[in-house]
Amino acid sequence: MKHLIIGAGAAAISAIRTILKEKPGDSIVIVSQDEEVYSRCMLHKFISGERDAGGINFINDDILNSPQIQWIKGKTITRLDTAAKTAYAGEEAVASGDTVLIATGANSVTPPIGELRTAKNAFGLRHLSDARAIVECAKGAKKIAVIGAGLVGLDAVYGILESSPGKEITVIEMAPAALAINLDAHAAEAYQRLFEKNGVKFHLASKVVNTQGDGKGNITAVDFEDAGGKKSVPCDMVIMAVGVRPAIAFLDGCGFELTERKGLKMSDYLETSIPGIYAAGDAAGLSGIWPNAQKQGEMAAYNMTGTKWAYDDKFAIKNTVNFFGLLSLSVGAINPQEGDEVLVREDRNNYRKLILRQGVPVGVILQGEIGGSGFWLHLIKNRIPIDKLGKSPWKVSYADFYGTEDTGEYKYVV
């Protein structure tokens, strides 16, 4: 049997490993736009110069050199013939398979504002090619505008600070706080202060409305509005970090059934509406975080090789942040709803926030010391109540959920 995998990210590599384990006699064809395997989570380390392309390769063996594998690199797929299960790059039939896995990841969103989509000095940060372009342009740039103060935007800023200190960096963000998806405003403020200490300026609650250019294809200033009116930030380059979108535009018109949000409609077995064609990772629209993408690739591969295995681990609300040695982790809800109980603990080195909803933990933020995060993930993911244990939620541990019978055997009691 022959399997076609489009993409070479975390989901794709996980699927490849599973296919080789389950069906060592099957063949695999990988087609990818990328010519290298790399971790998108570590692109900021490439920008900083801490690691080269080989240093952000997350494969620690020679799996892609297996005789069952053919890797076709540097091909941008533009169409998928679903009947023949054949991928095309323009008019070229690149590869086909008996099954197909769409693991193309996601692309940066570029706002249709001013010259952001056409300028030579404006970049997203999603691919290694983006990071390379940012590094090259930053060499001659003195003033850098970053649109978006989420994790990707601050990753880019942090990488540039480490590799090229002395740049004038300005971050423009629509939300009233940085890292609004990852942390609450209090935890995020700790990072903002650290960036500001290193010379970065922030304009929060601000909306980019236009750009100015030099008439030669370069942006020279970014215009934005905030509560004080219209303002402008001069710049030599722009980095856009306003979100990502599943990289499935090449499937338009190919007959796939879509969800209301224009994502691929998926079965519990990670199969699309077209039999024999599966999706995993960001392309599947379920969750693009690393462990979930890997698990989806594994589950898709089981189903591609004939083992029916439903993917039911769809909990994906987990974030880690680490800048300037300050480590944070959030799980579940980061901001409470009306009626929630909020418990906060804070000292000079740590900040902890727990959100309870009718006695059930629904979210936690740990900043500083993040020990015990696995325990909170388990409680939140499985909706386990802790209000009947008769003790402070901060004192709860795994031991509270087990008792002993007369035999001395441990028994789960909650």
Write the SSE topology.
Layout: E1 2-6, H1 10-22, E2 27-31, H2 43-48, E3 69-72, E4 79-81, E5 86-89, E6 92-96, E7 99-102, E8 106-108, E9 122-123, H3 128-138, E10 143-147, H4 151-163, E11 168-172, H5 185-197, E12 201-203, E13 207-213, E14 219-226, E15 229-234, E16 237-240, E17 244-246, E18 277-279, H6 290-304, E19 318-323, E20 326-332, E21 341-346, E22 351-357, E23 360-367, H7 373-382, E24 402-404, E25 410-412
Parallel strand pairs: 1-2, 1-7, 2-3, 7-18, 9-16, 10-11, 10-16, 11-12
Antiparallel strand pairs: 4-5, 5-6, 8-17, 13-14, 14-15, 19-20, 20-23, 21-22, 22-23, 24-25
Helix pairs in contact: 1-6
Can you characterise this structure?
- With 414 residues, the protein is an alpha/beta fold.
- The chain is built from seven helices and 25 strands.
- A five-stranded parallel beta sheet has the order 3-2-1-7-18, covered by helices on one side. Strands 9-16-10-11-12 form a five-stranded parallel beta sheet, with helices on one face.
- Helix 1 packs parallel to helix 6 (290-304).
- It starts with a strand and ends with a strand.
Write a brief structural summary.
The protein is an alpha/beta fold and 414 residues long.
Shape: globular
**Arithmetic mean pLDDT:** 93
End-to-end separation: 47 Å
- What's the count of strands? 25
Structural class determined from secondary elements = alpha/beta
Q: How much beta, percentage-wise?
A: 25-35%
Gyration radius, in Å: 24 Å
Biggest pleated-sheet summary: 5 strands, parallel
